[in-house]
Structure formats: structure tokens, C-alpha cells
Amino acid sequence: MTVFWRLLCDIFAQPSNFMNYFRTLLLLFFCLKLSTGLSQILPPTLDCIRGDTLYWTPENNNCGPFVSTDVFFSPNPAGPYSLLASISDPGATSFHHPAMGDAYYFLQSNYNCPGQTPIPSDTINNLPPAITTLEKVSVQSDGVLVSWYDNMDQKTVAYIIYRSTDQGTLPIDTVFGGLEYLDRSAMAGQKTETYYVLAMDQCGNTGFFDMPHKTVHLTTKVNFCEQYIELNWNNYSGWQNGTESVQIWLGLDGAPLAFEHQVQLTDTLAYVTGIDDNREYCIAISAKENGRDVRSFSNMVCAISDVITPVDQLKIRNVSVNQNGDIDILWNHSSNADIKVLQVLKAGQNEPFVLLQDYSSQRPNSDDVNTTDTDTDVQNQVYEYQIESTDECDETVTSNNFSSILLEVQSDMPEQNDIEWTPFQASGRVLIGYQLCRINESGMSVTLYETEDGPLNFTEIIDPTEGSNSCYVVKAIHTDINSADTLESRSNLACIEPQIGLYIPNAFVPGGVNSIFRPVPTFDNSLINYRMQIFNRWGGLVFESEDINHGWDGRQNGSMLDPGVFFYLVTFEQPGGKTEMRTGTIHLIR
To answer: Which of 95, 258, 403, 530 has a 20 to 30 Å separation from 390 between CA atoms?
Structure first.
């Protein structure tokens, strides 16, 4: 019944069939027989056509003796069909017919079965199976997945997968009952693979080759110095609709591939930038067919990145004079960076930078480093420091500059110290303020003066009871631009013996309360190069002493002098070597 209805649909689909009187009468006869419920004579099953030979499988009808297998032919699918041959051999399974051009056939079984109707077989033609269109070829971790569309040809019983090789385009496998194939023997990680799919009928006839599809093959190259991965690929080819988009997909450190960014359709070169060292980067190219949700992936390239780790920090945080009079330089660097030169540089005032210490051959393990400069004259010099680093790609990075602070103190007047210091100079650091401190004999610090941006000098009035020496240090309090790293930069420790003042009386009474005439120093009775001379009104030398504790008792050569006015001349050396002279008159009173 199924065969009949299919034949009926074929006939009515072509108006020209009604021009074929024989087939019209045959159809009406079949309808009459079927409507009255009479039996049918089943036809052979047409298998295929190989070359010029028609092949079939006989049908065994038990209604009566076999007469023949009748072959009907037409050069057109719509007919008219004519009897081509009646084959009397019941075991025959083939018939050779060298047709010129297209040929269409159907068969009938002819049995001597009165009252029973032979029905025709399905129609078959000598055309090859229909062309098969590939859907995509996409690279997977275990091979290349080849998929295609059903060619809707009833003759198709299987699909043959072809791949282009150095020896030509060769079949690699045959798929029955499916529309995809995983080629596990592909070399898609090393090259572009090209595929075709051909339909095959039962006799092994294949369809024509359609447009091939080529996989996208990706290669990568890491740029060590520029820290990027260069991607090169070929564009996907084979889609009749063309390509809608091309994308780069990236997976980092074992994570699944995810969309990274889209490139132009014509691009075959791109870069993944900002690569970190010693991380796994997996990259693939994805192409999408225009107008369809069909996507093909290239081979995935995975590699542990080997790129330079650059110097991402190089800065001097502090420069400070320590208790030994040396200068400590506190600085930060990238201990994990690929560095071949790392040096601390130093410059005196108005002098060029010179090498202080070379860390190139033995890099510090920590990011925080302290370098001590022991070759300094902190009482007289300001020093400037800088760190210089050159990485393995010959890129040189220079830190900020940081200068030491020089504090100086002098005393031009007795009981008064004048203190001044050089400004805080450090690029990249923010000054909070200064603290001027006196350091007493026990090492304790007493703040004398604080300022944020005021004068860099201070005058201290000395209390003679606090001792003869005065020591000072200035501290610059500073931080980074984020106020997150507050530090203290100390100057040199500057000490001074204050100017010695002399109290010289203008009269004395031998034998009275002030019986001895001598100067009284403000700080110390031991004066350097001290000398006192007493003269009478005529300029004669009356008395002379080089000991501050040995004064004049009003005598000359053991004899008491008469009351009167005398002249004195006192000379001594101040701390620092300056010679002082004091002159005046003294009244000797009885």
C-alpha cells in the first residue's frame, strides 16, 4: 500500500502524466482493485545502479508461477515510462542497460496469478547521490569534529569522510546513520586540515565534491620583553554564507576558555597583551557562520608564559643620618623582577652621581633594602642618592632622588647658638614638618622648635647652668602621596661649645669681699691660651697671669700698691679657635 500511494503522488505531481494513457489506466485499475480488496503482486526491491547495471532483490510471490521481471524505463522522471525488458530468469538480480544520459527505472513482478494485480517498485535513477553540504569542521582536544547536513537523497545510505593529505584527498572513514564524525587522527594542532563529505548509495556510488571546509590553525609566539603573545591564524573557509565574526578565546591557569575580544574578519594577526610571567595561557580562535548559530574553533594552544617580570617599583623611602654619623638609605625594589643591573648611586653637592653599591651579582631577597653609606662627611656635606635598575631587556628605570639634611650650628655671641639646616629634598615624598631637637648629655631628645614650612633656622639662648656643650639634630617628618608611609629623616648631630663670656669687675678691695681681681668665665674656668695683664697709668706692667684662677691681689713685686686706676688686657681663645681680647679699667680701693 505504501508503494502504491507514493506512486500515486508521483503521478499526480506531474500533469504530463495524464498524457500517458497506459499509466493512467494502470492507476485507475489499481484503485479499482484496491477498493474491491483484491490481492497484489509485490515488485522486486530496487537496490541501486552501478555504472550501466541495474541491481535488485527479487520478491517471492506465492500466488502462482513466475513469468518475468519487467523493467520499465524513461529518460525523464515524469515519464512516459516504457517496457524496456522482460527477464524470465526468476533468479536474476541485475540488468545491463547502457543508457545515454539520465535514466529512470521501476520494476514489476509478472506472475501468472489471475485476478491479482502487479504493483510497480519505487523509481530509481542513474544520477549520483546528492551533494552533501558540510556544516562545520571544528578542532577539539581529541580530534577534529566534522559535521554535515542531511542531503535528503533517499539513495544515500552512508557518508564518506575525505581529508586532504600530502598524498592527495583520501577517504578516511564512512559513517552510517549519522551526521558527524570525530577525526582522531587529524593533525590540527600542527597544520590546517581540509575536509569533504560525499554521500554514498548502496552500490557504492558517491556524490560530487562540494566546497571543502578548512580548520583554523593557530600558532602563538611569546614576546619576552614586550610581554605579549602574538597570535597568527588562517581564516575559516567553506561556509557559503561567509563568516559573521572571528573571536579570540582565552583560558588562564586552567580555567575554561572564555571570550576575550573580537577581531576584524580579515585579521589573521592579533596580540594578547599584559602577559604575566609563569602563568598558563590557553588560547583559541572562534569563527561563526554568517546568519547561523554555527561556530568553529581552532586548535587550542596552551603554554606557561615566559615573559620578563619588569621593575614595577623602585623608590627611595628614606635617607637618614644614624648615630654613628653614617647615612642609611631605605629603598624598595621588585625582588622578583628580571634585573641584570641594580645599583645605588651617590652624589656630593654639585657633583655627578657615582656608584655607591652594586647589587647586580647578588640581588636582595626582600623588596625592602637598607644600604648604609659609611664614606661621608655629614658635618659639612649634603649627599644625594638614587637607585638605578636595568632589566634583562635593557630597559633602565631610575628611582626618585633623596638628599640628606645638613644641620649647622654656630655661636657668634656668648650664651647664644644660631642653628640652621638644609631643606628636605625628596621627589615623591611629602613633607609634614620639621622638629629641631637638643640632645642632652644622657642622649635624651628635647624638642626646641617645630614648623611645617617656616624658617629653617632657630636661635637658642643658652643657660650656662646646663653645661658647656650643645648638640642638635633636626628631623624631617615625611610621607608618601597617599599618607600611608610616614617616616623620619634625621640630619647630622651638630655639637658646639658656646662662646665664652667673661665677667670682669671694675673695682676690687684687697682684703675686702672682692679681694682678688680676676675675670669670671660664663661656662668654664679652663680657658685656652688665657692671659691677663695689669698696667699702671704710665703703661708699666704691674701683674701678669696665664691661669684664670690666679688673679691680682693689688700688689707689685710683693708690695701693696696705692689706690688708683689701673688698666687690664685679657686675651683667650674661644671654642673653634677664635682669639678674643678684653680691655678696660679697674679701680684699686683701700
So the answer is: 403
- Phi/psi at 447 (5° precision): -75, 125
Hey, what's the cell of 317? 623611602
Nearest-5° Cα angle at 149, 147 to 153: 135
Compute the distance between CA of residue 311 and CA of residue 394 in angstroms, rounded to an integer. 12
pLDDT tens readout for residues 45-87: 999 999 899 999 999 999 999 999 999 999 999 999 999 999 9
- Find out whether 200 and 128 touch, Cβ atoms under 8 Å: no
* Three-class secondary structure of residue 224 per DSSP: coil
Contact 465, 537 (CB under 8 A): no
pLDDT mean values, one per 10 residues, the chain (590 residues):
40 38 43 52 93 93 94 95 95 94 95 93 93 97 97 94 95 96 96 97 93 97 95 96 97 96 96 93 98 97 94 96 96 94 95 96 94 97 97 96 96 85 96 94 85 91 70 96 94 86 87 85 77 94 93 91 93 83 90
Pairing of strands 180-183, 143-148: antiparallel
Which amino acid type is present at position 248? Answer: I
Q: Is 481 exposed, middle or buried (0-12, 13-18, 19+ CB in 10 A)?
A: exposed
The length of the chain in residues reads: 590
Say if CB 514 and CB 531 are below 8 A apart: no
Tens digit of each residue's pLDDT (9 = 90 or more) over 384-425: 999 999 999 999 999 999 999 999 999 877 778 999 999 999
On whether the CB atoms of residues 210 and 132 are closer than 8 A, the answer is yes
Domains along the chain? 2-125 (2.60.40.10), 134-214 (2.60.40.10), 218-304 (2.60.40.10), 314-403 (2.60.40.10), 407-496 (2.60.40.10), 502-588 (2.60.40)
3-state helix, strand, coil in the chain (%, to 5): 5, 50, 45
HSE value, Cβ hemisphere, 13 Å, CA-based, for 485: 14
Q: pTM higher than 0.90 for the full model? A: no
Single-letter code of the amino acid located at 515 = S
Q: Which helix (H) or strand (E) holds 583?
A: strand 579-588
Residue 6 phi/psi, 5-degree rounding, is -65, -45
Side-chain-side CA neighbours of residue 332 (13 Å) = 7
569 phi/psi in degrees, rounded to 5 = -135, 115
Specify the DSSP class assigned to residue 75: S
d(CA 441, CA 439): 7
Q: How far apart are CA 523 and CA 500, in angstroms?
A: 6
